[in-house]
Structures are given as C-alpha cells and as structure tokens.
Write a structure and sequence with these properties.
By secondary structure, the chain is α/β, with parallel strands linked by helices. It has 14 helices and 5 strands. It has one domain.
Length: about 350
C-alpha cells in the first residue's frame, strides 16, 4: 500500500513519545501518578475481527531480512482478500495457484507441527526457566480450515494508548509476537522494557531459546529490535495469572511481586478490545488495504480522544522533529474539546 508504512511508522513514533509532550492524567485508581504514563507495554489478541482471506495456504509469513536467519519460515497463507463468491484472490489466480479440494489433512499436519513446537524445549542446562511447563498455550487457536483471519494483535501502554498493531492470519503464534515486539522497539527504542502478555512465561522462554544461539546473539548488536528482546522483562497480566499453574509464573512473572509495578494497569488491552468489538462487523468485511488504513486512522483518533489531545491542533510530523531536539511541552497548543469532532463511538472512551 502506497505510503502506509510511512504513516504507520509516524503513528508508532508519535504515540510512543506521548509521555514526553502530553503525559496522560491517570485516574485515582492509578494513584494520579504521571510517572506511570507509558510505564509498561501490554500485548493482547482480539479475535472478533476476522477478515476474509484467500484460500491459498502455502504462503510463508513475510518477515524483515534480519529475521530470516533467526526463524524458520512460518506458513500462514495468503493475506489478500478474494473477490465476492471467490476462493482465491486475483494475484493467486494470475499465478495459476491450484486450490486443493480438501485441506483437512494439511490442517491436521500443521496442527501437529505447531503442537510439537509448543512443547517444552529440552535443554542440558536445567534451571527454573528450562523446566517451565506452563499449561497456557495459544498457538493451536484458529488452526483449522477457516478462510478468515484469526484477528488482530494490539500493543498498547498501561495508560490505554495504542502504539502498534498487527493482523494475525492463522494463529497467535509466538513467532508473530516476537516479530511484532522487535518491530515496535526498532521504530520506538525509547519505550519501556516492561512487557506484559497473558502468556508471558512461554513467550519469555521462546525468546531465551531463540537468542541462545551465538550467531543470533551476535546480531543483537546490529539490530536494535532484536537487542531489545534481551533487555525486556516479561510479566503476566493479573487477569490471566490465575490460569497459570506453574510456580515460576507466580514467582517471577507476577507484577505484584515488584513494588514499583503494583499500580500499573495490566488490563489496558482488555479495555481497548471491548471498544474495538463495536467495529468488528465493519472491519471484517473490508479488504486488506482498507482494513489496515481504517485501523490506523481509527486507532489514532481513539488515542486523541483518550488523551484529550486534539488531532486538528497537532502536527504529527512537526512534533516528531521537535522531539528529536529536546521537545518543549510548552509549545504544544492546549487541547480544545470543541475543535475535536469525532464519531459518537469515539467520544468518552
């Protein structure tokens, strides 16, 4: 899509820096502490938005060049939306892709492969992390013959400001989560290294196993996104922690075990998802280009409404340029609620 990557990068950079020029005024339940603005990054999947997908399932996940040597190819299928009453998209039709009559055997094979990968990794160096066998697994969700996407992955701060999002095509696999984290910290390396995820235990184990290779660890000094993976402290949100049975999760991944993290809102993504679901029907019937563009604009307007920041008074590009040279918050115009004209669904969120 023309200019989408540039707009998405500006979106991530702008809202990742909002604590610098327009910090959130947190509610009383967050102790009214402005220091908690952007104190943590929360990640969660939203499975209500399921866009139609092409029936071609033999397409690998598109990853950056530096990820090719780290991860093996992950088959997720074609991400394009077919025409009405069609199974294949126009691009796959032009490439003479032959659609299999039955994909149940292929789906079962993919399910077996993913289940094998999700088993605890064997290691000669046994420690608490290596012996982690948590009962929470997410990679086998939506691994079926469905021709619709699994949903979207939302990355937000603890103050409910969306800083990134990715579409999940087949399943909420840890490879896609790691790639999303790396992309986030590549574009916005100034973000906090506190990362909260409902399956943070297995995600931390997967990151550790991936970066255990010396050739991979040497690349950490070259790519800031991969280097950030070694610096992140993973936690499990309070809402899902009760579902974890392994002692390691409650001992090392519990937010309440750290006094500095007790006031952090770990359910910000859950609160955002409850707002997104009102648009699920509209977004599920869009093609891939309109879907991404509408989400980008929708999330930007939602952030403006939530932070009481008028989108008509702020120049995103100018703000980013000023922030690189010690941005002065006094130069920012005061928010004017009367100027901000948003749909009713976006007001009072």
């Amino acid at each position: 899509m023309v200019n989408y990557d540039r707009f998405y990068k500006n979106f991530m950079e702008f809202w990742s820096l909002h604590s610098t020029f327009h910090p959130c005024k947190l509610s009383a339940q967050d102790s009214n502490n402005e220091d908690l603005c952007s104190a943590a990054i929360i990640c969660d999947g939203h499975m209500k938005i399921r866009r139609r997908l092409c029936a071609n399932t033999n397409v690998p996940l598109s990853v950056p060049a530096h990820f090719i040597d780290i991860f093996k190819p992950l088959i997720v299928g074609c991400s394009h939306t077919p025409c009405m009453n069609e199974a294949l998209c126009s691009q796959c039709k032009n490439n003479n892709v032959i659609l299999q009559k039955s994909t149940s055997r292929a789906a079962n094979k993919r399910r077996e492969v993913i289940n094998q990968r999700s088993k605890p990794l064997e290691s000669n160096h046994k420690n608490e992390m290596a012996e982690l066998t948590c009962n929470v697994h997410k990679e086998d969700i939506m691994i079926d013959d469905s021709i619709r996407a699994c949903g979207i992955l939302v990355l937000a701060t603890n103050c409910q400001v969306i800083v990134g999002f990715e579409e999940i095509l087949r399943s909420e696999s840890r490879k896609q989560i790691i790639q999303a984290i790396s992309n986030l910290y590549t574009i916005a390396p100034m973000l906090t290294r506190i990362f909260i995820y409902d399956s943070g235990c297995l995600l931390a184990k997967s990151v550790r196993a991936t970066l255990a290779n010396e050739s991979v660890s040497n690349k950490c000094n070259t790519y800031p996104g991969i280097k950030a993976l070694t610096e992140i402290r993973f936690f499990v949100d309070r809402f899902h922690l009760s579902n974890h049975r392994d002692k390691y999760c409650h001992t090392h991944l519990n937010l309440d075990s750290d006094d500095t993290l007790k006031d952090i809102n770990s359910s910000s993504c859950e609160q955002i998802n409850s707002w997104i679901k009102s648009y699920s029907h509209m977004l599920s019937n869009m093609n891939e280009y309109r879907f991404a563009a509408v989400l980008l604009v929708l999330f930007h307007l939602r952030n403006c409404s939530h932070t009481k920041l008028s989108n008509r008074l702020v120049d995103v590009k100018k703000t980013l340029l000023q922030n690189t040279n010690a941005f002065d918050a006094s130069t920012l115009p005061a928010p004017n609620p009367k100027v901000l004209q948003l749909p009713k669904k976006l007001r009072n969120t």
